[in-house]
């Protein structure tokens, strides 16, 4: 699972994507040279990733007091649109087939109970995620792509090292402008990772012309999807998901069905009302978060105190921080809070950083010495011995050492980001 790097060329002439089927377009593919980047495919300016959506960093604007209470078009936000099928460009006949084969979610099963609990896992961020999808003209049903990927667990980590709600691999995440370093992993940042996912989904849609193809490519990779379409001789959803032909991996076939099934289930007003879960239809109408700026290096304990909430609760909103403080560096840093805490935070938060108190934990590995550990962490042997109350230089494997941290400038190169001054989101 997770976003895959694109590994074959897409069509240079983007007109074919609109004027004929995606199958016609990929038949023009000549080169199958592996690509090193999710964006390396040649494309016209209309199809380039920078022209589909702004970079992930553009979503890290000063959101102060930005919340789901901001006036928006509520036609789609307040309800899961009943036109789920048309959003994915899927024939209604195919849905009828799924229902006949009992592949849709039944409401009287343990599976539904399990999925409804997982849907509740994302209650803090579902509102803003839905609004971001809406603003980017991406079908709301793609919220369930995130649920299929991670069950809304921002800390989800696959055996292949894909992480976060949208399950990005490290290389893909960095290509999309997300930061991964000693202090932070923005794949676990629900808002910034969603901005990156939007960017990637827009790219896949521009490459394929259909949302269900974009969803498939998100799971198995655009190159793998291209090969499946060429082998099948069609980009029709029923053909591609054929169980006997197996044009696509089983994981991908089940993946799209799961997204469709969850979309239909969570937009079924009649059934949800019967089960006293009508609130799920309105998830996003009232819940909200805000983003506040604090000095880099601020402890989560200090921020939590200023917001009158527990550290654990604050961590729940900021799962991308690796330590109990915001990343070290120059300038301010953004932290997520529940909207109802904003007023208290403004009155009581003291933006004070005690850099000397910042420490990291290091686990001793085979071959480590105090000298080598000190060099790696820009400190001295004497400071390490003093901080850890060591009487000698002897170490043992798996021994835990406290490491004093110093402010550093954290710079992440993003060749796809646009340089411009960010403004407050309207």
UniProtKB/TrEMBL annotation:
Please list the GO biological process terms of this entry.
peptidoglycan metabolic process
Gene Ontology terms for molecular function: peptidoglycan lytic transglycosylase activity
Name a single GO cellular component: membrane
Q: Which InterPro entries match?
A: LysM (IPR018392), LysM_dom_sf (IPR036779), Lysozyme-like_dom_sf (IPR023346), Transglyc_AS (IPR000189), Transglycosylase_SLT_dom_1 (IPR008258)
Pfam families documented for this protein? LysM, SLT
SMART domains with a match to the protein in the record: LysM
Domain LysM intervals: 360-403
Q: Which family does it belong to?
A: Belongs to the transglycosylase Slt family.
Q: What is this protein called?
A: LysM peptidoglycan-binding domain-containing protein
Which species is the source of this protein?
Answer: Helicobacter saguini
């Amino acid at each position: 699972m997770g976003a895959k790097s694109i590994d074959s060329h897409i069509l240079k002439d983007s007109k074919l994507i609109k004027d004929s089927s995606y199958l016609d377009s990929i038949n023009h593919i000549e080169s199958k040279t592996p690509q090193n980047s999710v964006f390396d495919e040649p494309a016209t300016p209309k199809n380039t990733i920078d022209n589909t959506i702004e970079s992930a960093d553009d979503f890290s604007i000063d959101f102060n007091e930005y919340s789901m209470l901001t006036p928006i078009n509520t036609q789609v936000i307040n309800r899961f649109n009943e036109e789920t099928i048309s959003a994915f460009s899927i024939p209604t006949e195919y849905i009828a087939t799924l229902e006949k084969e009992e592949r849709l979610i039944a409401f009287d099963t343990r599976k539904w109970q399990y999925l409804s609990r997982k849907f509740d896992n994302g209650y803090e961020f579902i509102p803003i995620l839905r609004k971001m999808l809406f603003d980017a003209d991406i079908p709301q049903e793609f919220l369930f792509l995130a649920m299929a990927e991670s069950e809304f667990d921002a800390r989800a980590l696959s055996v292949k090292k894909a992480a976060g709600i949208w399950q990005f691999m490290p290389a893909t995440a960095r290509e999309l402008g997300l930061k991964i370093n000693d202090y932070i992993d923005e794949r676990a940042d629900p808002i910034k990772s969603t901005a990156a996912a939007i960017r990637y989904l827009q790219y896949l849609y521009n490459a394929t012309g259909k949302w269900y193809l974009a969803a498939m490519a998100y799971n198995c990779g655009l190159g793998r999807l291209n090969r499946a379409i060429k082998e099948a001789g069609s980009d029709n959803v029923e053909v591609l998901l054929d169980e006997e032909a197996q044009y696509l991996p089983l994981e991908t076939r089940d993946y799209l069905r799961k997204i469709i099934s969850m979309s239909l289930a969570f937009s079924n007003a009649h059934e949800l009302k019967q089960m006293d879960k009508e609130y799920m239809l309105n998830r996003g109408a009232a819940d909200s978060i805000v983003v506040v700026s604090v000095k880099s290096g601020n402890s989560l304990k200090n921020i939590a105190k200023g917001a009158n909430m527990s550290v654990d609760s604050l961590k729940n909103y900021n799962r991308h921080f690796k330590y109990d403080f915001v990343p070290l560096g120059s300038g301010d840093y953004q932290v997520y809070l529940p909207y109802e805490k904003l007023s208290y935070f403004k009155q009581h938060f003291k933006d004070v950083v005690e850099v000397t108190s910042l420490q990291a934990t290091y686990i001793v590995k085979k071959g480590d010495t105090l000298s080598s550990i000190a060099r790696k962490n820009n400190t001295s042997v004497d400071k390490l011995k003093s901080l850890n109350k060591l009487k000698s230089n002897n170490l043992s494997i798996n021994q835990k050492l406290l490491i004093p941290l110093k402010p550093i400038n954290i710079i992440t190169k993003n060749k796809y980001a646009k340089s411009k001054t960010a403004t407050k989101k309207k």
